[in-house]
């Protein structure tokens, strides 16, 4: 081959690999860091996990006999055992009978003034969490406790109007100027996301998303009384809670009744949302048009089904709640099937999970809704990393990424309950004690 041909080939190779890279990376230059970045332990060893069932987070088939090499705090190699060279002096971990996954990422975690919860979640496989509505100071005590913490992606207080639903966790903004100022201050303080609550009027959302995007951080929202399509058109990146779609799916006269009930009393939603969801028709044109819109906009949806779960008791069945919850599950599965990017959030303390296990319960509810285990794991790892805008560094087991890993017994692709059988957790290249 002549020199010009070689140069041309090199050029083509370079440009195509650059194109492939920009596809998976987010376009924002700024890398979002957890607030406790400098407090994390950092791995120094070379570790080889051999003969393991590798589920790498990208939503692909597992590699049944894989080897993963960790050097320092990063993944040096991952793939079929036959193709991986183990560096001399590496510490061996026998992976036969186990599955290796990326550390779980939780898009909706509340500290809720409970002690120990972040450390418990880390023990149970959650290596990154986002709290969409707590002052950064609220985590000070946990961070000083000496216990190992997950990567903490905090939002600062969520933005709400008066009277706020959760005064303790909210910052009340009265107009656009106040909202813009507050977003900038939160960004200065290290907030990794902006969260809006339901009393933020639609006209203010655009100013909030534009300001946040200029600062390189995404915006997510709990909508409830704001029509979802309108909020997304205004630039919202993600939506918290499947119930945020109630208004978009309800015929206008009933929707307005719900909105007025909420405007008069924040607590109206507690029973009101089950009444709404029990009566929804998810095969309606309204539902289909919403789904098509979400697919087109690629909006991240964090359904938090566990926060609304209702299980009928033997002699006491609340049929409204039962039908309402079934309907929430049904829409979640419909969105997934259509290709809307779902992400998993646990809501951290929920009725039907013991303390520390809300994340796993959420995974099980998705499975009971008819979503495949592969899709559930993808939503828990790489999709969440994309939502957080940290997918350059985390979310999958690929060469060069940070070594946040979990080792579980059995194969969660076959049975999602294997996610409760966590054997080992690695964060930043070090094993969690
Ligand atoms: Zn919440």
Key attributes of the depicted protein:
TIM Barrel, alpha/beta, 433 residues, 2 domains, eight-stranded mixed sheet, globular, binds zinc ion, Urease, subunit C, domain 1, four-stranded parallel sheet
In short:
The protein has 433 residues and is of the alpha/beta class. The protein is 35% helix and 18% strand. Zinc ion binds next to loops.
Structural class: alpha/beta
What's the name of the CATH homologous superfamily of the largest domain? Metal-dependent hydrolases
- Number of helices in the DSSP assignment: 14
Determine the fraction of residues in helical runs and give it as a percent range. 25-40%
Distance between the termini: 56 Å
How many structural domains can be distinguished in the coordinates?
2
- What is the typical, i.e. mean, pLDDT? 93
The major β-sheet equals: 8 strands, mixed
Radius of gyration: 22 Å
Low-confidence stretches: 8-26
CA-based shape = globular
Q: CATH fold name of the largest domain, please? A: TIM Barrel
**Beta-strand percentage?**
15-25%
Please identify, by name, the CATH architecture of the largest domain. Alpha-Beta Barrel
Broad CATH class of the largest domain: Alpha Beta
Q: Give a count of the beta strands, DSSP E runs of length 2 or more.
A: 17
**What molecules are bound to this protein?**
zinc ion
């Amino acid at each position: 081959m002549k020199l010009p041909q070689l140069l041309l080939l090199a050029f083509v190779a370079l440009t195509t690999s650059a194109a492939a890279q920009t596809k998976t990376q987010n376009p924002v230059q700024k890398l979002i860091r957890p607030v406790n970045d400098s407090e994390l332990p950092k791995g120094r060893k070379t570790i080889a996990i051999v003969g393991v069932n590798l589920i790498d987070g990208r939503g692909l088939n597992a590699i049944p006999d894989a080897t993963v090499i960790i050097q320092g705090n990063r993944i040096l190699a991952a793939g079929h055992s036959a193709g991986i060279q183990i560096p001399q002096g590496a510490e061996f971990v026998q992976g036969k009978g186990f599955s290796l996954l990326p550390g779980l990422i939780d898009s909706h975690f509340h500290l809720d003034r409970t002690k120990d919860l972040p450390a418990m979640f880390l023990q149970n496989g959650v290596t990154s969490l986002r709290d969409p509505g707590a002052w950064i100071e609220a985590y000070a005590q946990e961070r000083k406790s000496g216990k190992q913490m997950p990567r903490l992606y905090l939002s600062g207080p969520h933005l709400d109007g008066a009277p706020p639903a959760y005064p303790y966790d909210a910052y009340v903004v009265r107009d656009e100027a106040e909202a813009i100022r507050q977003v900038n201050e939160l960004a200065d303080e290290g907030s990794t996301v902006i969260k809006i609550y339901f009393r933020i009027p639609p006209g203010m959302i655009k100013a909030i998303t534009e300001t946040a995007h200029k600062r390189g951080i995404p915006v997510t929202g709990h909508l409830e009384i704001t029509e979802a399509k309108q909020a997304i058109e205004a630039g919202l990146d993600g939506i918290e809670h499947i119930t945020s779609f109630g208004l978009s799916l309800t015929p206008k006269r009933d929707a307005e009744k719900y909105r007025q009930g909420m405007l008069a009393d924040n607590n109206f939603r507690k029973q009101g949302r089950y009444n709404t969801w029990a009566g929804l028709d998810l095969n309606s044109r309204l539902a289909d048009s919403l789904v098509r819109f979400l697919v087109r906009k690629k909006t991240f949806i964090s359904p938090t089904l566990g926060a609304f779960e209702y299980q009928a008791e033997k002699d006491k069945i609340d049929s409204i709640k039962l039908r309402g919850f079934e309907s929430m599950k049904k829409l979640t599965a419909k969105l997934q099937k259509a290709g809307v990017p779902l992400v998993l959030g646990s809501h951290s303390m929920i009725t039907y999970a013991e303390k520390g296990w809300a994340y796993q319960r959420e995974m099980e509810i998705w499975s009971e809704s008819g979503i495949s285990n592969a899709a559930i794991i993808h939503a828990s790892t790489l999709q969440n990393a994309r939502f957080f805008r940290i997918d350059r560094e985390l979310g999958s087991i690929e060469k060069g990424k940070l070594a946040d890993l979990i080792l579980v017994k059995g194969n969660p692709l076959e049975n999602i309950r294997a996610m409760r059988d966590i054997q080992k957790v690695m964060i930043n290249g070090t094993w969690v004690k």
